[in-house]
Amino acid sequence: MRNRSMALVVRECKILMIHTYRFNRYIYELPGGGIEAGETPQQAAVRELKEECGLDGVITRPLNVLHRPNGSVEYVFLVDVPKDREPIVGMDPEVASGEEQAIKDVCWKSLQELSEKDRAFLWSYGLMDVEDFREIVLGWGDEISYPTGDR
User: N or C: which end of the chain has fewer CB atoms below 10 A?
Assistant: First the structure.
């Protein structure tokens, strides 16, 4: 596996998400993908945002570096985009020619609009270090919640 970079874009307490088919289900995930040869993680995050969402972005700051069990590294950056621009459904250039694009939609989602599973990935990417979301979570109650089903 090659290293990856992702862009976390926030607008009015909503996160820019890609709706895609992975892991045998539809999921919401951050725009991002593989780092190309000669490219920095920052350049990859901005390029992937442009390819997948049609948006030009500027990195505000790094959020997290994740070392995966397979030996790959994932970089996550907080990215700012112009307030007057809306995302479009772009393409994943890693999808082979003639194959169906995995990206089905690009949209802004609040935490309440995402499944527990999709939110879990956002926590690992550093969402708690984004002030607005830290404040939201600190306002939640203290009761324990856990999805039902197999653990």
Answer: C
